[in-house]
Design goal:
The complex is a heterodimer of chains A (about 210) and B (about 400). Chain A has about 210 residues and is an alpha/beta fold. Chain A folds into two domains: about 5-80, Orthogonal Bundle (Methyltransferase, Methionine Synthase (B12-binding Domains), Chain A, domain 1); about 90-205, Rossmann fold. Helix content of chain A is about 55%, strand content about 10%. Chain A has nine helices and five strands; from the N terminus they run H-H-H-H-E-H-E-H-E-H-E-H-E-H. A five-stranded parallel sheet of chain A has the order 2-1-3-4-5, with helices on both faces. The longest helix of chain A has 22 residues, at about 55-80. Chain A is globular. Chain A starts with a helix and ends with a helix. By secondary structure, chain B is an alpha/beta fold. The longest helix of chain B has about 30 residues, at about 145-175. The model of chain B has no long low-confidence stretch (mean pLDDT about 95). Classes of the chains: A alpha/beta (about 210), B alpha/beta (about 400). The interface between A and B is medium-sized, with 30 and 30 residues.
């Protein structure tokens, strides 16, 4: 059960109430990081409600939107505080596919849970994935695909990552993704629901 | 009547009987030639999309010797030049925006803004012409200008040209191979028109909380247009259903209350409006619709063919069976990752489970894309003939 009023407000998707509480707390001099923590707690609760079947995608997206609006105010104030990320995650929709709804929800949930997400967008080439993994040293890369016809390019991307000698864990997600596809493309994990991404990241990062 | 005409009549009879929930001589089976065909013809997807003659000839060659009932058409849903002529931002086509062998894709954006609701609701068609067309097409940015007028003429001409070419191709396939087309005309759920084309997924989901009354009013304003589209687009034909690809009503986009309040009332009114004119809908339920089956069962008997993609087939049969024809049963992933043996086993099981007392058409669950294997698709229709005799 959530006790913090701000965490509760975002979990209940009360947009105006969240905006008011963020402003009120900043005015009172409460450290921005503490406010972000409350928001993250509330988002985690929304994720739980999604898993239990109480919330649907519409609620998750709304929650992410409220979080994003709050972060526009909070993020500039965070620099200098000891905000620490749980770790780096590279995300992208694979080459040939321009669908990003599912990817964006997972990015939003990961960010909300305290991960630094390097979002490469859509139609991402294997070279771009590899460059981003090398640069960020990310232990986890998430690949999204909606079109079954683009699952082949997911396979090629994973092969290229392995050929480059990177042992980053690969998580795949998207409609029509299951264990058969995971094994075919050579991924480490497959996610069936939006909230699986955070669970798997927490497992990998020991968070 | 020649042999092909007799064959056509036999297949038509099967389709009509199944649509009316009856039991034909065999389980009718569909076949469509998807983008997978390019792997076997030495062509790129771009050629197939842009060169209609080439694509129609491939279809013509392939139809020879195949035994199935209902034809779902060739590999290209659209002829891209009509969009190219207007500088359309809506789609990316093979070789134009994506790789020459990547499938065409919809570029979803908020083409309609939250502030546009009132003007849209007051006059949807007028708003589309004055605002939507300029928003979605670089060549139509200045309505009434020389560029815009020329582009509009070119786009409309291209649409008419492709319509003529495709009508001639369908006539040839029907006359020479005796196949029956699946649908005439096109419709959509009003909420999908709003969510897919106008506001985008994120936009419409946020609207449900921020301006719910506008969403309901917009769906109500769209409904008569979508009814008309299903009837007028088919030249008032009522033998065949109109095709309606359904999107945002799938689980788990909307919570049950949102589904009941925002998705269903206008879709139901759309279906009832079509049915009042004798027009059925191919309720192409992409994804999983299991939680909503009870609501769908409120529709007038036989007013839809319900497509089973990832909906629980047993529940669909239990709740809708007998009152509505069911179609589907073969997962699209099986056509990619399976083998002909596995496909045949699955078809046998599906027929045992779903075909029993009639009112069933065997089909792939969803759209069969470029990754499917030809031998699996052929195995599906062969198995239907082997196990589908009533």
């Amino acid at each position: 059960m959530l006790t913090d009023a701000l965490a509760k407000a975002i979990a209940e998707l009360e947009e105006q109430q969240v905006a008011d509480l963020v402003k009120e707390r900043l005015d009172k001099g409460i450290p921005p990081l503490e406010i972000v923590n409350s928001l993250q707690q509330g988002m985690a609760e929304a994720g739980n409600r999604f898993e239990s079947g109480e919330y649907f995608l519409g609620e998750l997206i709304m929650c992410g939107e409220i979080m994003q609006d709050s972060m526009v105010i909070l993020e500039p104030l965070l620099s200098g505080s000891n905000a620490e990320y749980k770790g780096n995650v590279v995300m992208g929709t694979v080459k040939g596919d321009i669908h990003d709804l599912g990817k964006n929800i997972v990015v939003m949930l990961l960010k909300g849970s305290g991960y630094n997400v390097i979002d490469l967008g859509v139609d991402v080439s294997k070279e771009k994935f590899i460059a981003a993994i090398k640069e960020s040293n990310a232990p986890l890369v998430g690949m999204s695909v909606l079109l079954t016809g683009c699952q082949e390019s997911m396979k090629e991307t994973i092969e290229a990552i392995r050929a480059a000698g990177l042992n980053t864990k690969v998580l795949i997600g998207g409609n029509y993704i299951d264990d058969v596809v995971r094994d075919y493309v050579g991924a480490d994990y497959s996610a069936q629901a939006a909230t699986d991404g955070v669970k798997i990241a927490d497992e990998i990062f020991g968070a | 009547m020649n042999e092909t005409e007799k064959l056509y009549q036999k297949k038509l009879e099967r389709y009509m009987t199944a649509m009316d929930c009856g039991k034909p001589d065999v389980v009718p089976v569909t076949f469509g030639i998807g983008e997978w065909v390019v792997k076997y013809t030495g062509t790129t997807l771009q050629e197939i999309y842009y060169d209609l003659d080439k694509s129609n000839n491939i279809v013509n060659e392939m139809l020879k010797g195949l035994d199935f009932d209902i034809f779902k058409g060739g590999p290209c849903l659209w002829w891209p030049p009509m969009f190219d002529a207007m500088g359309s931002k809506l789609y990316k086509f093979p070789g134009m925006g994506v790789d020459e062998n990547s499938t065409f894709q919809f570029n979803e954006q908020e083409y309609m803004k939250a502030d546009d609701y009132d003007e849209f609701i007051a006059g949807p068609t007028e708003w589309l012409v004055n605002h939507f067309l300029p928003n979605i097409s670089t060549e139509l940015e200045n309505p009434g200008s020389y560029r815009s007028t020329v582009a509009l003429i070119k786009g409309a001409a291209a649409f008419a040209i492709s319509g003529g070419v495709m009508a001639a191709a369908w006539e040839k396939w029907t006359v020479e191979h005796g196949v029956v087309g699946q649908t005439t005309g096109f419709s959509k759920a009003p909420f999908d028109t709003l969510g897919d084309a106008l506001r985008g997924m994120k936009g419409v989901l946020l609207d449900l909380r921020r301006r719910p009354e506008k969403v309901i009013a917009a769906c109500a304003a769209i409904t008569p247009h979508n009814i008309n589209c299903g009837v007028a687009g088919s030249g008032a034909d009522t033998r065949f259903p109109c095709f309606a690809p359904l999107h945002r009503g799938a689980y788990p986009f909307l919570n049950p209350k949102q589904w009941d309040n925002f998705y269903w009332p206008s879709l139901k009114a759309n279906i009832e409006g079509l049915w009042a004119k004798g027009k059925r809908m191919l309720f192409y339920a992409e994804g999983d619709w299991t939680p909503y089956l009870e609501k769908i069962a409120e529709l007038p008997d036989k007013s839809i063919i319900f497509q089973i993609d990832t909906t629980d087939p047993k529940k669909a049969k239990e709740i809708l069976g007998g009152r509505f024809c069911l179609q589907g049963g073969v997962p699209t992933t099986l056509l990619t990752y399976g083998t002909p043996e596995k496909v045949k086993e699955h078809v046998k099981r599906t027929i045992d489970e779903l075909a029993g007392d009639g009112g069933f058409i065997l089909d792939a669950g969803g759209v069969v894309m470029g990754d499917a294997k030809q031998e699996n698709v052929i195995a599906m229709i062969e198995a239907a003939r082997e196990y589908g005799v009533y």
